[in-house]
Design goal:
The chain is of the alpha+beta class. The chain has a five-stranded antiparallel β-sheet with strand order 4-3-7-6-5. Helix 2 runs antiparallel to helix 3, helix 2 runs parallel beside helix 4 and helix 17 runs antiparallel to helix 18. The longest helix is centred in the first third of the chain and has 38 residues.
């Protein structure tokens, strides 16, 4: 058979089964199929670019294709020798586009395919390009025919179509403004896309782009694709979109320019039309509001034309011809005619303020005129109000000049020439304050009058004034007599329309007395600061939540904290819960009327035992009466507190010593009972009459007496123990009963009747054992006084009355006797330390003094008075 060339130019045996080509060196793709269209073999250079699934023997051809074919296996005989286009699934999600032919094999078919992916991609790119250009052309046509109100909607539609077709995050149109800034007029951003750059960030882009599309990087926003649209005055707008797909799209730079010009140009024309329409409306509105308008004079015909707004303002609206000079005030008419004739003849322009007749009265107008060919065109503005204001301003200026000349401040003006400030005006106060005249200052440099230590300040003031436009500083300036004045210099730079400095306007204020007063205040503050820091007392300020805002060095030393951490300190960290609660109660009780309080507080210092401070607080309130801060002064009373505790304990032991006889008798009674019971038991044993019932009864009696003695001993042990550190809430009745239990037996032995009148009592704060100690002291003193009087009066029936009750939030306990009372001249001294009325060798003179201190610490009061029968001591304590 003869060899033939197929449509691809490949040599092929006509009607033969085997191809002359070697499959092993085939640069395309060779696939061998069975009759069911399953793959039997796959070879060629393109086989490595197929999906991994192609290596599986027996897979159907359709599973390898990315797009289903339009034929089936039954169509192979018809398709033999024809060109076939197949798209295969490639590696990593790619597609492999091929074109080839089909050949018959024994028991199957073979596909000979070549790679045509680049041709397919070019065709698709051309199709996408045409669709984009058609999209832009259609939107441009619609924009040219659309109403002005639809322009933004159509531009948004264009941007949306562009974003969706290019698969980019967003796009927008940047438009040039009259102030040389750029405005982001419209934009479209896909949902959940990265943020589009804001208008402020986009200001830098136009300076980075010429008249051709290009990619620009904008900080963290990434690369942006910019396409300019030019106009008569340069670039008028930019299309801004995210780069990437946009930059590498199917459009050429010329396509981008044509696409943007076709859409943005009609959109900008709509924008200009609207701007022009709004400007015409504004001009008409302003002319109407200002009573102004245009006028025209024709030099050939001598006719005057007035604009509608000006005609309305002058009351000549609707008249075809207006005798303009007749409306001008006679005093201004000649000047107007001459100026108008000169401009009409020689050209040029003029401006004149004159009075025109309006509704029978004269009003000031400013006329501006300019020659243009055979006409003179002008504009008239009603300035009657301005003229009236000028008259008022002139009068005010005269008054101000008089005030300036007499003011204590020196007002000045300095002219700026090439960065040098030269004196131009100084008010008359200059000579009053410094003794200089303006002429003298013009002959010398102001810098020469400034104190040599302040000249750097003066020079910096000048540079700042030129750079920033305003300056304020203090420096010393020499007067005519050689003395120096502290001057407050406040200046502002006035500039022309181009920002160039013209003159500096400011004032000199003599603040010598204020500076000297401020220096005295500073020295005073320094003295007080040293006084606070070097004070041996602890001084601080803290907020109602106990967080410190200030602490002096002694307090910081106690707390073991450096000064820079004072803002993070809180007293709560050094107080127990009970002490914190006591602080809050005291703070809550502070008022603007009663801002002071004093307390003894217990503090847990780092690395130390408990410390006791005497703490004086003062509340600081705002104008609304709200507590802002607490100022406190403290003194370390730890040693004094410990001495006081030791004194209390010693007094307690002394009290126990004075009651030793009574207590011994109290204990001896149960011992005697137990001894008698044991004697009776021994007799029964000797007589042989001891029964179990008798033995049990005696033993129970002995057990009862043992418990009685144990209670006395336990009470003595508890009473003699040191008091707790923290205060506790307790019922005062228990302390009263404890004191009575220790002394009642002794009083009974001495023939003294003890009367109790106890009501229900609320709780109080403090130490129960210390209140018991106070009551024992009072009862012992009453006993001693009664025994002394009975020794003088044997017929006396001694008694002591102990009463307790509560009223108006306070608890009162009274101890009264019939010993005759205390000498009136001694009544005020009974609580003094070491004062006693007992004979020498009896008593220490500390009992009542210690008791007085205990009650005062508990927030109460211990008082003494004489009743008809004798002395009465009262203990008043706050409840709760």
């Amino acid at each position: 058979m003869n060899n033939q060339l197929n449509q691809f130019g490949i040599s092929q045996k006509s009607g033969a089964i085997n191809c002359v080509m070697d499959v092993s060196i085939w640069q395309g793709l060779y696939i061998e199929l069975d009759t069911a269209c399953r793959v039997r073999d796959c070879k060629g250079a393109l086989a490595a670019r197929l999906d991994d699934a192609v290596n599986t023997a027996g897979i159907e051809l359709a599973h390898l294709l990315a797009e289903p074919p339009a034929w089936a296996a039954e169509d192979f005989p018809i398709l033999e020798g024809q060109a076939l286009d197949l798209a295969f699934r490639g590696r990593a999600g790619t597609r492999l586009h091929t074109r080839g032919w089909l050949e018959r094999l024994p028991g199957g078919w073979s596909l000979w395919l070549l790679d045509v992916s680049d041709q397919v991609e070019r065709a698709r790119a051309q199709e996408r390009r045409l669709r984009l250009l058609d999209h832009g052309a259609e939107l441009g046509r619609r924009l040219r025919l659309a109403r002005n109100t639809d322009r933004d909607t159509l531009l948004d539609e264009f941007l949306e179509g562009l974003v969706l077709r290019l698969a980019i995050p967003g796009a927008g149109v940047l438009v040039a403004q009259a102030d040389r800034r750029w405005r982001l007029a419209r934009r479209f951003v896909q949902p959940r896309a990265p943020a589009f750059p804001d208008e402020r960030a986009l200001q830098r882009l136009p300076g980075l782009v010429d008249n051709a599309p290009r990619s620009v990087r904008l900080d963290a926003t990434g690369d942006l694709w910019l396409v300019p649209h030019g106009g008569r005055d340069g670039v008028e707008a930019y299309l801004v979109c995210h780069a990437g797909t946009a930059e590498t799209s199917d459009l050429t730079r010329e396509d981008w320019m044509r696409l943007v010009d076709g859409v943005v140009a009609p959109w900008l024309q709509h924008l200009r039309d609207e701007t022009r329409r709004e400007e015409d409306e504004r001009n008409a509105c302003l002319q109407d509001m200002l009573g102004s308008g245009w006028w025209e004079y024709c030099s050939q015909t001598g006719r005057y034309l007035l604009g509608p707004c000006l005609g309305d303002a002058l009351g000549v609206a609707g008249e075809s011809e207006v005798d303009w000079p007749a409306l001008v005030h006679p005093a201004d008419r000649d000047e107007f005619r001459v100026r108008l004739a000169d401009v009409a003849a020689a050209g040029g322009q003029f401006v004149q303020a004159l009075r025109l007749s309006v509704a029978g009265s004269w009003r000031w107008f400013r006329l501006s005129a300019r020659a243009q060919r055979q006409r003179v065109i002008g504009f008239a503005v009603d300035i009657d109000d301005i003229k009236a204001n000028e008259a008022v301003a002139a009068a005010a200026t005269a008054r101000l000049e008089s005030l300036v000349d007499s003011a204590p401040a020196i007002i000045y003006v300095q002219h700026c020439e090439e960065g040098v400030l030269r004196p131009e005006f100084f008010s008359a106060s200059l000579e009053v304050v410094l003794g200089w005249t303006l002429a003298e200052l013009c002959e010398r440099s102001l810098l020469s009058l400034v104190h040599e230590d302040d000249r750097d300040i003066f020079l910096k003031r000048t540079r700042r004034l030129l750079r920033e436009g305003k300056a304020s500083c203090h420096y010393r300036m020499r007067d005519r007599h050689g003395g120096y004045h502290w001057i407050l210099d406040e200046a502002k730079m006035l500039r022309d329309d181009y920002g160039r400095p013209l003159e500096a306007v400011g004032l000199y204020l003599d603040v010598t007395e204020a500076r000297e007063a401020a220096e005295r205040v500073r020295q005073s503050e320094e003295r007080y600061r040293l006084l606070v820091e070097d004070s041996p007392s602890m001084i601080c300020r803290y907020r109602p939540d106990l967080s410190l805002s200030f602490a002096n060095r002694p307090l910081l030393d106690y707390l073991g904290c450096p000064p820079e951490l004072v803002g993070s300190l809180s007293l709560v960290d050094y107080l127990s819960d009970e002490q914190c609660e006591a602080f809050r109660r005291r703070i809550a009780a502070l008022t603007p009327e009663q801002p002071l309080c004093t307390a003894e507080i217990r503090v847990q210092l780092p690395g130390h035992e408990h410390a006791w401070w005497l703490w004086a607080e003062r509340g600081v309130f705002d104008c609304a009466g709200r507590l802002v801060e607490i100022q406190a002064v403290g003194r370390d009373d730890t040693e004094l507190h410990r001495s006081r505790q030791q004194l209390h304990q010693s007094a307690k032991m002394a009290t126990l010593g004075t009651m030793a006889t009574g207590i011994a008798h109290e204990i001896s009674q149960p011992l005697n009972v137990m001894r008698a019971a044991l004697m009776n038991l021994l007799k029964r044993v000797e007589n042989g009459g001891l029964t179990d019932e008798y033995l049990a009864a005696k033993l129970e009696r002995i057990e009862g007496q043992v418990q009685r003695a144990a209670r006395i001993v336990n009470h003595m042990r508890g009473f003699g123990r040191r008091s707790e550190i923290e205060w506790q809430r307790f019922r005062p009745r228990a302390a009263i009963e404890g004191a009575v239990a220790l002394i009642c037996e002794d009083m009974q032995q001495q023939g003294i009747r003890l009367e109790l009148e106890l009501a229900e009592l609320p709780e109080v704060c403090g130490h129960a054992d210390q209140l018991e100690q106070v009551l024992i002291n009072l009862l012992v003193n009453a006993r001693d006084a009664l025994l002394e009087r009975k020794a003088r009066e044997p017929t006396l029936q001694p008694w002591v009355r102990l009463g307790a009750g509560a009223r108006e939030g306070r608890v009162r306990v009274e101890v009264q006797d019939n010993a005759g009372g205390i000498e009136p001249e001694l009544l005020e001294r009974v609580f003094d330390p070491f004062f006693t009325t007992k004979p020498v060798g009896q008593g220490t003179g500390l009992g009542l003094s210690v008791s007085y201190g205990i009650i005062r610490q508990m927030g109460g009061e211990l008082t003494a008075r004489n009743e008809s029968s004798g002395a009465c001591f009262s203990v008043d304590l706050p409840a709760g």
